[in-house]
Design goal:
Radius of gyration: 21 Å
Structural class: alpha+beta
Strand content: 25-35%
Number of helices: 3
Helix content: 10-25%
Order of helices and strands: EEEEEEHHEEH
Number of strands: 8
Largest sheet: 5 strands, antiparallel
């Protein structure tokens, strides 16, 4: 498919997102969003940097990694030189709010997160989450819910992270656990 050379409109970019089924989590950032992170520059000085997300990869053991085109550095030795593509994990990035952000068009993020994502946010392992549910610290209906499809045999738990954080804030000696 091609456009006429006289057309003032370039071809639209198309993105293909492949969704693995196991341990998949929704991406926290989207194509075209501006983000910031802290890192070393060429002179090994730590500074805050900004850029635009131009790609992303889901890695089962790590979650999402984002490919970022850094903004040009006006004080760099050669500001016209193309910036190097940066790849960073989700926990190193912060969204820069912008009027053009796709996030404003999306539904608000769910308070209920799948086990792997909730464990990452809470700083626990998935097995620790399940163990705390079995021991009674996390209560079904309040802290977690079972989203298993009847007959599938695969448990699918979701967790309300804020409530889990509140339960974990209670000192261990004062926690009621079976």
């Amino acid at each position: 498919m091609s456009r006429s050379k006289t057309s003032p409109h370039p071809l639209d970019q198309v993105w293909l997102v492949v969704v693995p089924q196991l341990d998949f989590t929704e991406p926290q950032f989207h194509f075209g969003e501006r983000v910031q992170w802290a890192g070393e520059n060429d002179q090994r000085v730590w500074q805050r940097q900004t850029g635009c997300i131009i790609g992303m990869t889901f890695i089962r053991s790590h979650g999402w990694e984002y490919h970022i085109q850094p903004d040009l550095d006006p004080v760099a030795s050669n500001p016209s030189a193309p910036a190097t593509l940066i790849t960073l994990p989700v926990h190193d990035l912060t969204r820069l709010e912008a009027a053009t952000s796709i996030q404003s068009y999306l539904q608000p993020p769910s308070a209920w997160l799948p086990t792997a994502h909730a464990a990452q946010v809470l700083g626990l392992s998935a097995e620790q989450l399940r163990k705390l549910r079995r021991k009674g610290l996390f209560k079904v209906g309040t802290h977690c819910r079972d989203m298993t499809i009847p007959g599938s045999g695969l448990p699918r738990w979701q967790w309300e992270v804020e409530r889990c954080q509140q339960a974990l804030a209670v000192p261990p000696a004062k926690r009621w656990i079976r």
